[in-house]
Amino acid sequence: MRKCDVAVIGLGLMGSAALDALLDSGVDALGFDPVGPGSNRGSSHGSCRIFRRFNFENSNYTALSDEAHAGWMRLQNDHGKTILTPTPVLEAGLPGSRMVAASRAATIGKGLPDPVLTPAEANRRFPAFDLPDGWDVVVQDGGAILRTEVVMEIMRARAGDRVITEAAQFEPRQDGVSIRTANDAFFAERAILALGPWLGRALPKLGSLLRITRQAVGWFRPARPASVEFGRLPIFILERGPNDVVYGFPNFESRGVKAAPHNHGPAVGPDDWDPPATDRELGPVSEALATLVPGAAGPIVDRDVCLYTNTPAADRRPDQGEEFIIDRWPDTRLVVCSACSGHGAKFAPAIGQRLARLATDPTFEAEPFFRLSRYSAF
């Protein structure tokens, strides 16, 4: 039986970042995942995510973004591969948009200039847009395209033979965690579970708090290609109404404009990745582009599906839901990570550090808004 101090089960962005932090600290750690870089399954698949320094979801996230940015830059400087491609982030919504107001407040709260633009100013600066008069608009610096595929390759290479490319079953014991793959048995003093949409299956009590939704993603052949190239089109997040948010990227891969709804799709299971996104699912995105970003509008040329794993609003420490769970699992030597809800990827280095400390430092606790104790079930 092979032994280690800490096992990390699930090596998407969060698990890989945790394993990287452990190994970087000299901890005897192993990672387990049958899925490798380049797969089209798992919460971290695909080439890119949005990095935002100023976050409308939670006023505490700006400090977390700064910590994560430092981690991404260390990794980028160490390996000489581009991980963060800086680009502005335009956020816009109907008059009185809470999303835009919260993003603006996060910026001003850091002592920076007010990021507000009028729709006319935004349309002149970024000619792909046709934002209506009266809309609320901010344009943030500190944004970037996060090259997730590059990150996954770097982290997997850094871990080397500490990665076991097999599915792992675990069993908590009083003195640690037993782990079995198809070919071997392992024992870890502690284990971090970073299983994305499969976490609720592994821990049914937690599964009752998690809702997995199917999220359609499309790439669109732009009507005005020059207006959507990198450097001319920012990352954008557009709030057209309650539960009607569309986000998108400039055409930085010569693949078209990537755009998708951020509102939750239908509930699905953790293995429900097929079929590919349909024209009907992407219809609201096509409509939003045609109305608000006509330079990016055009036929769908590629499509994908992501799964969000969403947390509900807490009842003991009120929040709006869609917060992460980063905590120790009660009465075991397990640490759980459900850093999801469609906006966790950018924080991976900071979350990885927290997971590593939860597994190795008994005095460390994650922030209260990440803990299981915010739910009465725990």
Properties at a glance:
single chain, 378 residues, alpha+beta, FAD/NAD(P)-binding domain, D-Amino Acid Oxidase, Chain A, domain 2, eight-stranded mixed sheet, FAD-dependent oxidoreductase, FAD-dep_OxRdtase
Structure description:
It contains nine helices and 19 strands. It is α+β, with helices and mostly antiparallel strands. The chain has two domains: about 1-45 and about 150-210 and about 315-375, 3-Layer(bba) Sandwich (FAD/NAD(P)-binding domain), CATH 3.50.50; about 90-140 and about 210-310, D-Amino Acid Oxidase, Chain A, domain 2 (2-Layer Sandwich), CATH 3.30.9. Strands 1, 2, 9, 10, 11, 12, 18 and 19 form an eight-stranded mixed β-sheet that branches. The chain has an eight-stranded mixed β-sheet with strand order 6-7-5-14-15-16-13-17, with helices on both faces. A hairpin with a 2-residue loop joins strand 10 and strand 11. Helix 1 (about 15-25) packs parallel to helix 5, helix 1 (about 15-25) crosses helix 9 (about 350-360) and helix 2 packs across helix 9. It is globular. The model has no long low-confidence stretch (mean pLDDT about 95).
